[in-house]
Structures are given as C-alpha cells and as structure tokens.
Amino acid sequence: MxxxxxxxxxxxxxxxxxxxxxxxxxxxxxxxxxxxQVARELGYLPNASARTLRTQRSRVLGVVLPTLLNxxxxxxxxxxxxxxxxxxxxxxxxxxxxxxxxxxxAVGRLIAANVDGxxxxxxxxxxxxxxxxxxxxxxxxxxxxxxxxxxxxxxVDSEAASAEVVQRLVALGHRRIAMVSGTLAASxxxxxxxxxxxxxxxxxxxxxxxxxxxxxxxxxxDAVSRHLRQRDRPTALFCSNxxxxxxxxxxxxxxxxxxxxxxxxxxxxxxxxxxxxxPMLSTVAQPNSEIGARSVELLVQALASGQRLAPSSGLLLxxxxxxxxxxxxVSSRKAD
Amino acid sequence: MxxxxxxxxxxxxxxxxxxxxxxxxxxxxxxxxxxxQVARELGYLPNASARTLRTQRSRVLGVVLPTLLNxxxxxxxxxxxxxxxxxxxxxxxxxxxxxxxxxxxAVGRLIAANVDGxxxxxxxxxxxxxxxxxxxxxxxxxxxxxxxxxxxxxxVDSEAASAEVVQRLVALGHRRIAMVSGTLAASxxxxxxxxxxxxxxxxxxxxxxxxxxxxxxxxxxDAVSRHLRQRDRPTALFCSNxxxxxxxxxxxxxxxxxxxxxxxxxxxxxxxxxxxxxPMLSTVAQPNSEIGARSVELLVQALASGQRLAPSSGLLLxxxxxxxxxxxxVSSRKAD
DNA sequence: CTGTTAGCGCTTTCAA
DNA sequence: TTGAAAGCGCTAACAG
Lengths: 336, 336
Description:
Chains A, B: GO terms for molecular function: DNA-binding transcription factor activity; transcription cis-regulatory region binding. Chains A, B: Keywords: DNA-binding, Transcription, Transcription regulation. Chains A, B: Residues 1-55 form the HTH lacI-type domain. Chain A has 12 helices and 12 strands. The longest helix of chain A has 18 residues, at 288-305. By secondary structure, chain A is α/β, with parallel strands linked by helices. In chain A, the strands form 2 sheets. A 6-stranded parallel β-sheet of chain A has the order 2-1-3-4-5-11, with helices on both faces. A 6-stranded mixed β-sheet of chain A has the order 7-6-8-9-10-12, with helices on both faces.
C-alpha cells in the first residue's frame, strides 16, 4: 500500500494525499475526507522508512540500558516508552550487559538506525568512548542514572541519599554498618553510593568496615551469608541495589539471622516489587519511571528546538527513603 | 555520511561501495580494503532507512507485550533481544497495558514501521482484531504465552502445569486449595491456568472453592488477606502468577499466618527473582527467556524461507515445578 | 487549493 | 570486476 495507490483511487495527486495526512488544514475538508476515506478502505499506512529517508527524522529514540533483568531498568524503560509514545516517538532499546564494548556497538547501531536522539545508561560517563562519539554529533542525548558534569544527566543524588541511609541506621542504634555492592568499577552509581556511605559513616564518627564487593550475582547469597557468620558481624547492611538487598535477606536467613530482628537491611533503587515483599524492603526509592519519562521530555524538547542538550540542562530528581520492614532498630542482643 | 561520500573519496562508484559491504567477495580484495579503509576514516554507517526502503526488509522485529513491569515479560523481552541481535535483527517493542485497543494500535504502528515480523502476547487470540489483521498479510508473526489452534504459538502447557500443581499440593496433604487470579477475562493464560486448577481438583475428588479474582493489583493484598481470615480458610493458595503469589505471601503475614507453616503458596511464571526470595517462591517455572528466543528463531526461519508460519509450527516448551520454600505440607494445626 | 517533480541513501539490474 | 542509472515511498519546493 503506497501513497500512489491512494492518490490514484482518490483521483488526486500524491502531494495532496501527503498533505491530507500531515497538514490536514492545507486541503479542503472535502478532499481531506475523501482521502481519509480511501486510505481507510485501502488500509493505507504511511511508510516510516520512506518518510524518515525524506525528512531525515525517524521519530525514534534510541535507548541503551545495561539489562532488562533488573526491574530498575525495566521500570525506567516503561517510563521511557510511555513518554515517547505520548510525544509521538517509538523507541529502539538495546542492552549492554554492563559491557563497555557493547555500549559502543549499541551507539553505532542506533546511529545507523537514524534515531533522532538517545537515552543511555553507561558504566562510566567520564571514560566512555560511546559518549565521545555522541558528543561529536548525531543528535541530542541524555544520560539516565549516570551523573557527570560533562553530560546532561537525569538522576538522583545517590551520594547524599546513601549518606542519609547511614544516618538513619545510626539513629536506630546501629554502629556496625556494612556496605554490600556489586563490582565498584562496573558503574559510577555504585561508586557514588559507596562514597555516600563512607561520608555518612565519617559524619557519624564510625569506622567503615571493608566494602563487601560481590562480583557475581550467583554467589552473592553465599558471600554475604559467610560474611554474616563472622564474629562482630554487622548489625545493618546497606546494599547498593535492591536485588542485592533481596539476596542479603536470603543470606541472613541462611546464616540463621532474622530480618529485621537480628539484622537491618536497606537497599537502593526502589523497585516496585520491594513494597510487596515480606518483610517490605527498606530502600532509597528513585523515581525510575519518571527518570525515563523526564529524559524523553528533555530529548523531545531539544529535538523541537533543534538544539543539542547542554550538560547543565540535566535534572536531579528527588529520592525518598522508603521505610520498609527490613530495617529496624538494633536489638539488645546485638548491642554491645 | 552517505555512500556517495565514501565512493567519491575512494574513487569508485557507489555500487562498488555497496557491494564491498554487502557482498565482499564480489569485489577485488584491493577494492574492498580500500573501501573499508575510507569508510572507517569517514565513520560511514549504512543508512538503515534507505536500505529498508530499497530492499523492503527492515531487519527489525516488532514485539507487542502487555507490560514491562511484570518481570515475566521483561525476561521474555530479554530473550527476544538477545536472539534477535544474534540473528542480525533489532527489535521494536510496544506495550499494551493489557488493553485490546492498544494491541490493535501497536500492530498498526509496527506495520507502518516496516517490521519484518512480529512477536506478540495478546489477551485473547481467538477474538483479537489485531491478529485478524496480521493473518491478512504483513509478514510472519508468532504468539508468545498464548495458545490457540489457529495461530503459531510458543508457550507451555499451562493447563497441565496447573493440574500438576494441585496434584502436588494434594500429595502434601492439602484439601482446601484455593486459586487466586487476576481478571480471568484479561488473558487466555489466566483462563487456562484456572481450567487446569479445576481439572486437578476434580481429579483429586476435591470441591474447588470459588475463584478469588483480584481485579486490581493495588488491592490484591487486602483482598487475599480478607479471604484468609475466613473460617475454613484454605491451607494452600495457587496463584495465577508470581506477582500475585508474592502479594499473597504478604497477605498471609497480614492475616497473621506464616508461610509455609500455616499456608502454602504456589505461583506461576518462574520469574528469576522468586529464587532469591525468603521464603523462596514455589512456582511453575516457564522458560521465559527461551520463549522469547525460540519465537525469534521461528520468525527468522520463516523470514529466511519466505514463508509465513503455520499454526502447527508453534512450540510447546517444557515447564518445571520449582519447589521453593513457600510451599510445604499441611500442618497439623490446619488438618482437620 | 492542488499538481508536478526532485531527491533523501541505498541496492540491483544491465552493460561495459 | 566495475559503473550508470532506475526506483523503493515519501515530502517539500515550486508552479499553476
């Protein structure tokens, strides 16, 4: 079904059909209705590739995410998809499995696909070759979750949020507060969260035990559980993300500890599922869906004005500590 | 960066550049290397829209899913994305929020986007206008999770799996086994699972209590909890999906019951997160990622052979009961 | 208000 | 082995 067929059947020119679709008020109502009628009969749908080729805009936004298996990013993509749809854009999502090489490849594929703009979550904005390439041209882009002065970013203040978590745990009587994280090098978020933790500990005059860095999710439960069997085990665990927090709760059970009675566990991310768990997960809730939606809005705005996005146009969205049942006061058994 | 620029700089024709990329052995090695060199220098990437317009294939697969907020579908999309990438395809995912009207709209958008094929999860294959449209033309498609004799489907045998769950619960001593489901009308899966449950109950000579249909997720916990406070409350709950199972565990706690001691809870879907929960979720594990991957494979195969997919080419993948800690024998307190 | 036409970047005959 | 040229479906001057 092409515009030609519609034109012929309606007895008008292709230009008129095109106008009827794109600028309905540039044709007489009679013509417009005729064209619409014929188009409907023929089941005509404008060919997106032809339109893109001609106009040099695809109305597609590229999205680069680490993975969809972490609900954080699935929620974010949900927000992106909704906002994009509302603004008349489709999305082309690519995942990187946290691998730098895949970030670069993804950007290349998106450029080739003529996306109008990109939203990306990268490992490390400071050293990303993919970003360097984007800065060289190829339309506007925004980083989500990342934070870096050289790029427009939509995120929360992870560092402050983490320090705040420590402060809350201290207020609950905890002194031995350990942090559990995935590979620090794998993401700037992990680094920011750890930095915030250290800051919080220092502010409370506490000595931070060594970071429990868990390289592989498969072994997370065992690693944490082993850690919890030590003498002078922590009474509270601050986990770098909700998935780790969930596994830490499991690790606690495995070590014979009950959450929150024997161990307080706090996560980071605010995945929706956390609210349905028993015990309900305590976490730093990020507006995941909104992070995605706002990123789209920035992009759409930039697209409309023909500008690229300045680093200063980024957004720092509010986070909120979600007090769940996985976090309670230190018990007398644990206090020393 | 167009093919023209590369041709000019390399001192060859555009046809040669095109061949160097698409049929490397149709040009002399020297020419090929020259072209590749120049292309690299210029950062040339073939324009996907132009290629699509010319060849009438986009190398994009459309995906229609209910939502990304249910990890089941996020996992499936993960499988789709991986398999598609491996086969040289990109994906264009659209979500419908379980709304029929959105299914139709999505299919329209995908057709306009020139996708080469589609993978969809619909509410009800039997009555779907979107599917009727696909059957009329527009390339091959596969349904995932759905099951219907008139369409190629990749799924598990939900009915048998559900009957099997009942059988296991009965073997554990349970007699009062209730089923919790979302709106039955919203999906054929829910209907199949309920049918399997009824079958299983009948096979065990048990009377099935009325289905506990929970229309809104927001009220699920309250509804189930209220149900659990009744006299002659069930000793086991079979939930139509894992998200409901997780909420049911919460509902149990709210009703003062401990899982699995006072109540056995079994889900359906096999989301990865279930294995990390405490208690670990008992569930019917579907190979979610594989369902996506196999759907892609069918599509790619059909695309290669230029055939559309026959309903009989669908796949019934094996499910597995994943015995978690949320399900145990009926306790003496509960047995009557 | 409507029609004619060039051309977006690419692939693919057809000829050389 | 390589080049010239047509044309995929559409939009946007430009002309009428």
